Amino acid sequence: MFKAFLLKYAEIGVKGKNRYMFEDALVNRVKIALEKIDGAFEVSKVSGRIYATANEEFDYDEAVNALTKVFGIVGICPLVQIEDEGFDDLADKVIDYLDKTYPDKNFTFKVNARRARKNYPLSSPEINMELGERILNAFDTVKVDVHHPDIMVNVEIREQINIYTKVIKGAGGMPTGTAGKAMLLLSGGIDSPVAGYMIAKRGVVLEATYFHAPPYTSERAKQKVIDLAKQVAKYSGPIKLNIVNFTDPQLYIYETCPHEELTIIMRRYMMRIAEHFAKESGCLGLITGESIGQVASQTMQSLNATNEVCTLPVYRPVIAFDKQDIIDISCKIDTYETSILPFEDCCTIFVAKHPVTKPNVNVIRNSEEKLGEKMKELVDKAIETVEVVWCE
Ligand code: ATP
Ligand code: MG
Questions:
Q1: What CA–CA distance (Å, rounded) separates 268 from 350?
Q2: Is the same domain home to 144 and 277?
Q3: What is the pTM of this model?
Q4: Separation of 296 CA from ligand 2 center, angstroms?
Q5: Dist CA 224 CA 63 (whole Å)
Q6: Mutate to test the pocket of ligand 1, among 185, 329, 357, 386 (most ligand atoms within 8 A of CB)
Q7: Tell me: the pLDDT tens digits for 345-377?
Q8: Which ligand is nearest to the CA of 225?
Q9: Are 66 and 52 a contacting pair, CB within 8 Å?
Q10: Domain span at residue 73?
């Protein structure tokens, strides 16, 4: 029944002179999303609206699923498209469509006509009146409600005529690629994939860095992170994942520094190394899944100590979220089931029984100084031996 989609967008509609850039980016993202499914689509921009029109048979559910992952779209409207064969024909087809789509006729409705082609013989208000009458006559249990209708019967008169009543909720946000790039510190946990998703939603391209510690962490733990990156990539587009072997630096910190400071020192080195890759590839910020007070390394004092080694801005989109709020998003974007798989991540192996919760930055700096030249070499080696996996 549906041959096309009208794609509604919100914020990018108000971007002034840059509007076309955002629209073109969105058209592009829609094309990429639809390329992956069966069926060829034409994606076009027509007077401030974006249409995806099928040129052949396609899988409706697959198409909707792909479109709900495109940032920048707020509403996906499946369209019935008909040729203009006069008003009587239009009314018959609208009635037929409503009949098939809403088997129980217990709804209120309003007709919302939009005459984009001005040579159509009826004006928009006339179409609203006349079509409303015909629908009322066709089904005796339906009613008009102009304020809060159950069903908005949208009729757009263009070269062809579009009819739609459904608006499927889109992903929102801004089209990918309209806001630069950032480096996500991606672990196998629940929080960081959500953090990456949230920043990507604002149009930011993601790159990611994962620290593992073989043989203390397993291949399965690494695969889990790759799987998480692939899942986030369904929304954000392909993610270049840097996998850093952090075993030697971590063992050396373990041997050299007071155990209650391990986590903080480790995290500072993670930030430094991630920032190295970030700068190398033109990222404008780092992203973490930190949330105030969640664990010892995420108190305000700990965050302050970790943040101190970064020169790029660190984006922490879940900083004020409760765990349950983060879990809700991870369920929505389908990372939760993977995140809760029980494979150890590198931080959980080298944790102290009683980590400092209020680290003093000067004390931490002193401990790091004891690591000396050798630490530099280990870090350089970790950077040189990075393994890159493209996740899409
Ligand atoms: P997550 O659920 O994201 O793993 P968490 O609650 O386990 O977070 P921490 O382990 O303290 O919290 O990590 C805080 C943040 O540091 C993570 O959200 C992530 O951005 C980053 N991070 C932690 N471990 C790693 C790792 N092994 N590789 C890359 N980034 C990491
Ligand atoms: Mg973690």
A1: 15
A2: no
A3: 0.93
A4: 12
A5: 27
A6: 185
A7: 655 667 777 888 899 999 999 999 999 999 999
A8: 1
A9: no
A10: 4-169
